[in-house]
Design a protein that fits this description.
single chain; Heat Shock Protein 90; 2 domains; five-stranded mixed sheet; two-stranded antiparallel sheet; 66% helix; disordered N terminus; disordered C terminus
């Protein structure tokens, strides 16, 4: 019932609809005046036929609106819609025909209205010709407004979902960082702890500044990832061996907010050094992707769930922002995530 109520409201004529109908009727009036003048119509025909033609259009529009609302939306009966619609076209067309004959002849020639079937066809055709263009204009306008409203609704929903996804990341990251500080207190010097806290504050300052952004510049996202890696190396010392291969960094490319940081955190979360064997991480770039490849720790050769919550959220971000998808390669010894680089379509026009 709720969906039907929404559809019914969409059929209501707005101020702009009345302006469109008024403009059409005014155009028809001028056209009929010109036509009657060229064809030498009598003055009586001006004052009868033109108003009747305008009334015919308005009445047919109102009937079409009511039939759609009642038989399509409320009742869902196509058969009744066709039958009553056909009878309405015939009746309005018949009344218009009577008016036209009376204005030109001064009387109603009933003998001319046979056979009945031929008259019915003529009346229905006459009504269809007069309603087709204005109904098409209103339908096209309503369709455009519906698509515009739907687009705005989708954009609003996307923005809301993106905020929800980002809000899920922030508390999780803060929780891990506080645990790291707690661990540092036990074996690190006050200077190292202060340096860690300073980097953490710098990272969060940046996150706060861009928290409302849907996408961020590639170079900014990489800088944020490097800041996070400093915090990670402080906590785990020599557990990770990170190599950046970022020559020829493409310009004017973007990533979803927090995408690189989420991917790096995923490496740390699922891979720990064991028996002196470091986790090797290689970060490389192509014109279209940023790839993060890492070796696996011995206990992580086979994941029961290859994609965790963080990556699931990241995949949703890509789905909301573009048609691109994250590329994941999960082998026995390594795990690779390639993040598609995004572009702003209207960048050249801004």
């Amino acid at each position: 019932m709720e969906n039907k109520h929404l559809e019914l409201n969409s059929l209501k004529f707005k101020k702009s609809d009345y302006k469109l109908i008024g403009g059409y009727l005014l155009t028809v009036t001028f056209w009929l005046v010109y036509k009657f003048k060229i064809e030498g119509y009598a003055l009586r025909e001006y004052f009868i036929d033109i108003p009747v033609a305008l009334i015919q259009v308005v009445v047919l529009l109102l009937i079409a609106k009511k039939l759609i609302e009642y038989y399509f939306i409320r009742k869902g009966s196509l058969i009744l819609f066709i039958i009553i619609g056909f009878l309405s076209l015939w009746f309005i067309g018949f009344c218009t025909m009577l008016s036209g004959d009376y204005s030109s002849l001064g009387r109603i020639p009933w003998s001319r209205y046979s056979p009945f079937t031929k008259t019915v066809i003529f009346n229905v055709q006459n009504s269809i010709y007069n309603i087709a263009l204005p109904l098409s204009l209103i339908s096209g306008k309503k369709y455009y407004e519906h698509q515009l409203s739907l687009s705005r609704l989708i954009n609003a929903q996307m923005a809301l979902e993106l905020k929800v996804l980002r809000s899920q990341f922030d508390p999780h990251f803060l929780y891990n960082s506080l645990n790291t500080i707690d661990a540092l207190i036990d074996y690190s010097s006050p200077e190292e702890i202060k340096q860690y806290i300073a980097n953490l504050a710098s990272l969060y300052r940046y996150l706060v500044n861009i928290r409302e952004e849907e996408i961020v510049k590639l170079e900014d996202e990489i800088a944020l990832g490097k800041n996070y890696l400093f915090l990670t190396e402080t906590q785990f010392e020599n557990d990770y061996d990170v190599h950046f291969r970022l020559d020829n960094l493409p310009s004017n490319r973007y990533l979803p907010n927090g995408a690189f940081l989420t991917t790096i955190e995923n490496v740390v979360k699922h891979n720990k050094a064991s028996r002196g064997i470091k986790i090797k991480v290689e970060i490389s770039i192509t014109p279209d992707t940023l790839c993060i490849k890492n070796t696996k720790s011995p206990g992580n050769k086979k994941r029961e769930k290859p994609v965790g919550t963080g990556l699931e959220n990241l995949q949703k971000q890509y789905q909301l922002l573009s048609n691109e998808q994250i590329i994941i390669q999960d082998t026995q010894d390594s795990y690779t995530i390639c993040l598609p680089l995004l572009s702003i379509v209207n960048e050249a026009t801004q």
